[in-house]
Structure to design on (612 residues):
């Protein structure tokens, strides 16, 4: 079971070498992260984009562009299509966003011919190592699905549990979060949380233990759980997956962790044929590297399944 | 301008002595906090409840019960009514919950005869001192109002801005938060945030600067704000008030701060005739003391206004 990004990166090195395909790779921050991932033995990269720009940016960063396979395609839409096809065809194992807008990038992910659709909804998972918390936390969805329905939440759980399994967490504990830990008919999110718990008990959601509604303190703090007399619950400070009511709650907690706590984090898009790395401008260098490592671990697990 | 709880407590000591009236005071954790507040010169207390039990608990905590005025009223409802009347009549300056359930306590707060109604909706404010953040953060509403409407949010801002003013923050910056910092018609909370901003610009919300929608990083992290090119905004990492979309988002961020960051915090209920202290079992000793100090500062400001 992986409990830190150091362990995650060590695990990646034991797996067969993975390759990330980068769409519109002429992006300094992305190239830096991709290069660090290569130097650390996490993954190789194929760079698709404007070759001239890629070479110039690489040289500016003291990166030797000749270490990489570069496919020259200056048009953004075409570059994304070419890059995603490499993963669709199994030439690369993960797909990463470079210097194109999220909309254009997602269009390539969802392309019916060369894209990475599985028929399931896509969701985002942000994995956190937080000082003082023993287990990794899998936050979802903090960036992609805005107002998930009950059905969407089932898919989000399935997508995220697969990532937990890839990290060696065999039976992850999933906490559908709310402001309170009891069902209140005036708060629909608590009713849905209880319904997800029931579906898990009835075997309709498998490979994990669901227990909600839960407040965040009972989900992540064993002492708080004990203090509140929550020891009879299936989750008492040991939640792996934090399922948020909506994107506002999720994103605000995500940014609260990044900007006020001591953390390491990385994130990927799931529900796709291969893991998709969709880091944002504001993510740190290390977050980008961690995201590539996380994607590699998930890619390895997917390979085992196929 | 107060920027820490140490400063807040120093300020309280410069004000005239305040008194807190405690409803159903036979509660060890509450008595400990009340006693610490007294010893630190923050406030005196009048203890209303079962005198025999109060004396026994006090002695068990090495507190001399004779230091306090005790009003013997073993019945919880009557004790709350008596205690709230003391603040209603100006004998005490703040009202605090002891060993009775929140519902019964709020019933006394809202009592038409002896309660603390002002005609305005009540809201909760949690004040945080967070390591690495220069200003105090006023989080609202993380515990009381569940799904505030636009009109409710105007009242929440007014209630909270009054608390900021009491803390010497003359023109607090109010950030209506969301997952994103731009208006998206598919996310109603962003539309409402923009509307609150407009109302502030038109002088319908005064005594503060409102700028929303804002993501949490732009609200509290000047570096992140600069990185995202948010320097043209009215708020760029220097928000005082964090206004949450709903209680789930608010409560989850609140608990995230308490359980993963280095913080000091205290909270009160506002929109009442006098500040109301409604701490919960799970609040730490220090949080309870801080809450009494916060209430005292607000009580002083209210006295100045009357």
């Amino acid at each position: 079971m992986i409990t830190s990004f150091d362990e995650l990166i060590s695990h990646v090195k034991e797996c067969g070498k993975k390759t990330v395909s980068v769409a519109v790779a002429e992006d300094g921050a992305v190239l830096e992260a991709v290069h660090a991932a290569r130097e650390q033995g996490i993954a190789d990269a194929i760079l698709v984009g404007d070759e001239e720009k890629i070479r110039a940016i690489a040289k500016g960063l003291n990166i030797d562009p000749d270490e990489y396979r570069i496919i020259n395609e200056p048009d953004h839409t075409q570059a994304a299509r070419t890059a995603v096809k490499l993963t669709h065809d199994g030439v690369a194992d993960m797909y990463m966003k470079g210097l194109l807008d999220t909309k254009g990038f997602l269009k390539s992910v969802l392309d019916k011919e060369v894209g990475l659709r599985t028929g399931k909804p896509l969701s985002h998972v942000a994995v956190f190592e937080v000082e003082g918390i023993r287990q990794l936390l899998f936050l979802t969805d903090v960036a992609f699905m805005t107002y998930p329905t009950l059905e969407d939440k089932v898919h989000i759980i399935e997508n995220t549990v697969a990532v937990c399994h890839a990290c060696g967490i065999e039976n992850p504990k999933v906490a559908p979060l709310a402001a309170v830990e009891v069902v209140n008919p005036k708060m629909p999110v608590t009713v849905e949380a209880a319904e997800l718990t029931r579906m898990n008990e009835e075997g309709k959601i498998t490979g994990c233990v669901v227990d909600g509604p839960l407040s965040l303190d009972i989900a992540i703090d064993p002492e708080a759980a004990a203090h509140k007399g929550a020891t009879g619950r299936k989750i008492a400070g040991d939640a792996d997956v934090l399922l948020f009511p909506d994107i506002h709650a999720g994103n605000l907690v995500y940014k609260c962790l990044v900007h006020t706590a001591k953390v390491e984090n990385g994130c990927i898009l799931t529900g796709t044929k291969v893991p998709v790395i969709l880091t944002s401008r504001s993510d740190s260098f290390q977050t980008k590297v961690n995201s590539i490592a996380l994607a590699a671990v998930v890619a390895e697990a997917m390979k085992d399944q196929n």
Summary: Chain A has eleven helices and eleven strands. The mean pLDDT of chain A is 96. The longest helix of chain A spans residues 285-305. The first strand of chain A starts at residue 19 and ends at 23.
